[in-house]
Amino acid sequence: MKKTVIIGATTNPSRYAYLAAEMLTEYKHEIVPVGIKPGKVFGKEILHIQSQPKIEDVDTITLYIGPQHQPEHYQYLLSLKPKRVIFNPGTENPEFEKMVEATGAEAWHACTLVLLRSGQY
Question: What pairs with residue 33 in β-bridges?
Answer without folding.
Answer: 6
